[in-house]
Write a structure and sequence with these properties.
Layout (H helix, E strand, L loop, with lengths): L17 H10 L3 E2 L8 H6 L9 E5 L2 E10 L5 E8 L5 H9 L6 E4 L3 E6 L8 E2 L2 E10 L5 E8 L4
Antiparallel strand pairs: 1-2, 2-3, 3-4, 4-9, 5-6, 6-8, 7-8, 8-9
Amino acid sequence: MSPTVPLPPLSALLGATRRAALDVFLGLGFRPYARPIDLDAERARLLNIDLSEPEVAFQRDGDLAAVARVETDRDGIVTHVEVVGAEPADPVAVALALLGEIGPPRTGGGVDAREWIWGPESGSEATVAGEPVRLWVCAERAYGDRLWLVASLVRRD
């Protein structure tokens, strides 16, 4: 999520099959996730590995730098992507890279955790695969302001 952790375009992930989305991550240097034997509880919490099981991971200098997972609908189409990085990143820069024209976000949270949301609720008109997209980014002070992003299709079926 910093310049050294590549983020795929949302259009290559959302609306794609699970296999195609994971292949995009693999093409950017991520590898299938296998829990490292030396992963301690602090690093696991930093990357939210204690909350969900990642599918792919990006390493830098032998350490986990980021992990990602996808969720699909009943038809196997990716509707949700979560990426957690170990380092902080500028949420506006991340949103610009992923969505292009973004407009102002809806913001919330407090000193301990701040959130930025670009989606229908903020007036964003970004779409992928013909569906509105919501991008949620959170920076938590307890974890060195590492960024946690969730992108999802906003289905209106």
